[in-house]
Amino acid sequence: MSLPPEIAKKVRLLEISTRRLVNSLFAGSYHSAFKGQGMTFAEFREYVAGDDVRTISWPLTARTGKVFIKKFDEERELTLILVVDVSGSLDFGTGKDFKGEVATHLSALLGFAAAKNNDHVGLLLFSDQVEHFVPPKKGHGHVNRILRDLYYQKPLHRGTKIGSAIQYLQGVLKKRAIVFIMSDFADEGYADALRMISRKHDVVAVSIEDAAETELPDLGLVDLHDPETGELITVDTRSKAFKAALKKEMDRRRQTREQELRQAGVDRISVSTNTDFVQPLIRYFKTRAAGGGR
Asked: Is residue 144 part of a domain?
């Protein structure tokens, strides 16, 4: 696929900045946080005091006259699936990046960290339907392909249906996977779908927020456009009544999101367009590696 030069440049710049961060501090945290799916035989070695007697190889012990045990290594190969919301509400942000751009940067970090650990990486883009799916494969070249798709694929729809994306994913994933869902979770009724998929897969919800969604600055009369419905309204941002109504609605949405994710029982990371969105991910990895996660 021939990409427009501006897209190719974006991918290249993101790859350069992301790889530097992955190599310096991110890949090790990722490796420690997510364990392998089992154990594979590595070698025999002679028994020493304190070894688990259940690992003794009795046939080899009988042949040699010395006690040997089987040594196992963790089977590291994992599958990472990046589930990225591309609905209209992600085209918003008052920080350095829009919410959708934060999702792309986090996808690059996770993707290159997985590639560095020789894991498979896949991608699912969704709005109120599945927009695009890339089956998991290995390699930095495959991660670059995923980044190209994140920049290049334009959604056909603007709404949000998290449950539909999860149901599709359940149908295509054959092996246990780590599933990162990156969204502002501007939806309802997805807790059951998340709970179902988390029974087989390791699910992490990355909630992307923006400060202006809860406290709009005083800008006078402004036109507000709902990116998912297309509705356009003019509001007075200095109006106390409007600010109170806005706060009430955003509090309701936040409470709904918290309730849905809590009922789903999945791990959660909160990031903001207005602050460093990498550190919350690293903190989560460290907490999880120390036994604080799933």
From this structure: yes
State which H helix or E strand residue 103 sits in. helix 99-116
C-alpha distance from residue 96 to each of 38, 74, 92, 103 (Å): 41, 40, 11, 13
Collapsing DSSP to helix, strand or coil, 231 comes out as coil
Please give the residue range of the domain that contains residue 199: 5-33+76-289
State the Cα–Cα distance between residues 11 and 9, nearest whole angstrom.
5
Shared-domain flag, residues 247 and 161: yes
- pTM value? 0.83
Q: Are residues 169 and 66 in the same domain?
A: no
- The size of the chain, in residues, is 294
* E-assigned strand segments in 56-186: 68-75, 79-85, 120-126, 130-137, 178-183
Give me the residue label for tokens 């994306």. 165
Q: Same domain for 248 and 171?
A: yes
Report CA 112 to chain centroid distance, whole Å.
13
What is d(CA 145, CA 184) in angstroms, rounded to the nearest whole number?
Answer: 24
Which residues, listed in sequence order, are joined to residue 224 by a DSSP beta bridge? 233
CATH number at residue 96: 3.40.50.410
Taking the chain (294 residues) in runs of 10, the rounded mean pLDDT of each run is 76 84 78 67 80 87 91 72 97 92 95 91 98 96 95 93 96 93 95 95 96 78 74 83 85 91 94 93 89 64
One domain, residues 143 and 199: yes
Residue with tokens 């295509």: 172
Domain count, the chain: 2
